[in-house]
Amino acid sequence: MTVTELDTERVFDDFVKSRELTVVHFYAPWAAQCSQIDDVLEEMCKLEEYRGVQFGRVEAENVPMVSHKFGIAVVPTVLLLRNSCIVDRVDGVNTIELTGKVKHHLYNKDPLSDHVIKFKEPLEERLKKLTNQAPCMLFMKGNPAQPRCGFSRTIVSILDGYKADYKTFDILQDNEVREGLKKLSNWPTYPQLYINGDLIGGLDIVKEMSESGELECMLPKKESVEERRVAGASV
C-alpha cells in the first residue's frame, strides 16, 4: 500500500468515492512542514492496522478547484473522507491529532454521521485563513491569466506592474466565500485586496494608493531569477 498522487480533479473525485476511509494530504512543495505529514502517512501505509484505509496526496495549488471546494486555506491540511464526504480534517502540522482521528474514524463507516457537521470549519474562520493565505491576497473574478471582469483585469495589471508577489482566489467558484467575505470585510464589491490579512480595498482605493506611491512600498515583491541565484549561493 502506498500514498497515491492525485494530480487532477477527476483523479481526486474517483479516488474519494470509496466507502472505506480515505485520507488525503493537501501539500505544497515549498512548505517544508508538509514532509512531516508525508512521513506519517507513509508509515501508516506499512502498518497492518491501517490496511482498510487508502491514502492520497494533492499538490494544493495545482488542483485549485478541489482546494477551493474543500476550503483548503493552509498547507498541510489533511482530509478524512468516505463516499466523497468529509468526516474530519486536520489543518496544519499535528501528527498526534492526525493519527488519533484516523484511528477514530477507521471503524466508523457512516458518512452522514454527526462528524460531518461537527467538524465543518466555521465560515468566519475559513475566511480569515484565506485572507492570510499569502502576505498579499487578491479576491477577484477569474484568475490573473483569465480575469472575468474589467475591474479584476485592471487590478491584476496594477499588481503585475509592480512585480508584486500575490495569490488570488476566484470568488466565482465559491459562493459561500463570495457572500461571506462581503459581510466580514463590510465591503460589498469585488475585487478586494488584502495585505497581511488586512483589507486594503477595491480597485478605486488601489488606484489611488498607486497614484500616490503608497501602494508600491506595501506590496511584497517577487524575487528575480538572479536574486534567487544569489540567495541560493549564499546559503
From TrEMBL:
| One Gene Ontology molecular-function label | iron-sulfur cluster binding
- All copies of domain Thioredoxin, residue ranges: 1-125
Q: Does the keyword Ion transport apply?
A: no
A single GO BP term for this record reads:
intracellular iron ion homeostasis
A GO-annotated cellular component: cytosol
Q: Which Gene3D superfamilies match?
A: Glutaredoxin (3.40.30.10)
Q: Which keywords describe this protein according to UniProt?
A: Iron, Iron-sulfur, Metal-binding
**NCBIfam families per UniProt:** Grx4 family monothiol glutaredoxin
Q: What is this protein called?
A: Glutaredoxin-3
* Classification of source organism: Eukaryota, Metazoa, Ecdysozoa, Arthropoda, Hexapoda
- Whichever gene encodes this chain, its name is LOC106749799
